Amino acid sequence: MSIVPMTGRPAGGHPQEDPDQLARWRLISLEKQLPQPRLLTGIGTPSLVCALLLTLLAIFAFAYLGRNTSSGVPRAVVESQHEFVSELSRSLNRSVNRSRDELGREVVAYRAHPEQAAARLAALTKDQDKWRGVAVFNPDGKTVVNRVGQVFVLPAGLAPERAALPLVDGNDARMLLVEPLADRKLLVAELRLNVRTLRLDPRSRQAVLIAVAGKGRALAQGAPVQAGPQLDPVVEKAVRASGRGRTTTRTGPAVVPARGSGATGPVVPVVTADAVGDHGFAVVSLIYSPMTTAAESREPLVAALALVVAAIVVLLILRAGLVLPVRRLLAHAKAVASGNSPGDPPSTPNAQVNRIASALSALAARPGGGPAGRHSAAGGVPAILMVVAAVVAVLGAAGGILATAKETERDLPAQVVRDSENQAGAVAAALGDSLNGGYDKLLVLGRDQPAASNQQLRRALDDLLDESGRFRSAYVLSADGSVVTSVGREPLRPTGKAPGKGGVVLHDVRGRLPIVYAYQPLADGRSLVAEFDVRYLTRLLQRMQGRVRVLDVDQRDILDSGGYLAFEQVTDAPVRGASTQALTGRTYAQVTEVDGARDLLVAAPVALDGPAAALKWTVVAQRPVTDFALPGNVLRHGALLVVVVAVGIGLLLFSWHYFFQLRPLRNLAREAATLAGGDTSQAISPRWHDDIGAVAVCLEVCRQAATHGEQRLGGAARLRGTDGMPTAIMPRVPDRRRGGRGRRKGV
After folding, report:
1. Which of 107, 296, 334, 345 has a Cα-to-Cα distance from 734 of 20 to 30 A?
2. Fold annotation for 91-189
C-alpha cells in the first residue's frame, strides 16, 4: 500500500472526515511500525523446533536401539578376542625385537673378535631354548663356518642383507634372522616363535595359530585345527586383512557344535588376526562361538512412540496455551492502538495474555486519554505452568523409556572370562619381565665392568636409562651406602647400604610413592642401584581395561591404574580372596559381587621365578559387567543416551521459553496493568523483535494516546495534512516494467 500526497480532493474526502478510512489508515501505518519476527524469534518457533527435535530423536531411538536385535556373535566376544589377540601380537613383537637386538650385539662383538665366534654363539644359546640354532655362513650362504644347535639351511635366493623371514612349514612356527658380518659372512639364527602359556577354553575349541599370508599356518597352542574348504578361506582373509595394520575378525558359516561344548545350537567359527609388527606374520585366534538369536524387543518401538507422543503434547499445550493466545492478543492490541473497535477482550487460557487484553480494553474504553480506572484482571493459568506442563511431558517420555528398558546383564560368556584371564596374565607377565629384565641389565653391567671407575659406570648407567624408560634414576653406592655418582632424577631411596646379594626390592610401605629398585653388588663393595619409574610400571597395567591394581602379600595397594593412595589397605573381601588365590600361583577369574555391583574379577601372580618373585605381588583386574558389549548392556546404555538427549531437549524447551517469552510477557503484563491504572510516566519498550515485542509497541502507542490524545494513535505522524493537500489511501499501481527493474537514468 503506497501513501502519497494528493493535489485533488479524493472521492472519500479527507481521512479525518471518514472514520472508517482513518481507522484503516492507522492500522496500516501501525503495522508498518511493528517489529516483525525473524528466524527463530516467532512465538511458535520454540515449540515447533523442540517438537521437531523430539521427532528426530524418536527416529534415532528406533534405529539405534533396534540395531542389536539381530542374531550373530555377541559383540563382547568379538571385542575380547580383539584385546586378547592384540596383546599376544604386541608380546610376540617385543620378543622378536629383543632377539634381534641380542643378535645385533653379537655382530658388534664379532667385529672386534671374530676368532671368538664359536664361544659367543655357545654363550648366546646357553639356557635359551628359543634359539633352535645359530650359525655363521660364508658369503655364498651355503658353507657353514660355525654352528650351535640344530642344523638348518638358508632358503635359495636369500639376499646377503639384514632380514627376518617367517617360516611355518611342518606345523612349526619359526623365524630366520639374518645379520651381515664385517667380513661379508652371515650370522643366521633360527628363532622359535613361542607363545607364552595361555589358558584356552576347550569348550570353544580355541586355538592360537601363527600364520603367514599365502604360505600357511602353524598351531602354537590349543585344539588342533583341521584344514577344510570352509575354514581355510576365512583364516586367509583375516590374515591378509591384518596386514593392513589393524586387528581383524572374520566369521565363517555355522556348524554343528562339538560334543561336550555345552552349546545347544549352531556355533560360528570366529577368526581374529593381528599382524606382529612388520615381521611378515600374524597371530590368529580361532574359537567356535554360539550365536545369539534375534530377540523381539519392544524397547525401540516404545521409545519412539513415547517421544512422538511427547512431541505432539508439546505442540498442543504450547499452541493452545501460549501461541494462539499471544496471536489473538496481538490482533486485539493492533485494533486498540489504531483506534478501531476492538470488541470484547479475548478470553484465553493464558493469565498474562488476559491481563494485557483487559488493560487494552480499559484503555480503548476511554478515548482521548485521561485517568484510567482500575480494571480487574481476567482469570487463566500462568504461562509458566503451561511451559512446565510441556517440559513434564518430555521428562515423562524420558522416564517411560528408562522404566521399560531392560536390566543390564549379570553374567558374561565363558569366552570373555577366559580372554580376560589371559589378558591379566599378560599384564602380570609384562610387569614381571620388566622387573626381572631391569635386574638382569644391572647384572650384565656389573659382570662386564666389575672394577670400573665411577665415571665409567656413570656413562654405562646413562646408556641404561636412555635405552628404556623403565628407570627413573640409576646410581652407584659406595661401600658405606652413600651415593657417589648418579644419573637421571633425584633418588627417592634414602642413603644406606643395599640389602642382600642383589635383586628387586620394595623399599618400605610408607610415603606417598612406592620406591621399587633393582640393585647388584660389585666385587669391590660398591653397588649398582636403579629405581623403577612408577609411571612406567603403571602404564603396563593400563594395557587392560577396567581398574587394574598390584597388591602385595599384605593386601596393600602398591600400583593402580586409577587414582589411589599408595599402600592403602584393601578391604573388599572378594578382591582380597582373588589376590590370595593368585599368590598360590593359580589365576582367579570369576564374576562376583563387589561393593554391590556385578564385576568381573581377575587375579594373576606377577612373577613365579626370578628376582621379582620375592616381592610376592599379584595383579588384580576389576571391571563392571555393565562395561561389556552384551545385548542387555548395549540396550540399556542406548536407552540412557536417548533419555539424556530427551532431558536436554526439555531443558532447551524451558530455557528458550522462559528467557525469550515468559519473562518479557510477564513484564509486559505488569506494565499493562500499571498503564491501565493511570500511570503513563514510563515508556514501554519491546524486549525482542517478536510477537510480544509487537504487543509492547501497541501498548506504547496507547500510552502516548492516553497522554497526548488520540492523534498519537497508529500512523499519527503522517495524518497531519494541510488544506489543499489531503491524505488518502491510494490503490497500489502494478509495476508493468519487465523484470520489475527501474528505468535507466536519462530515460
Report:
1. 334
2. Beta-Lactamase (3.30.450)
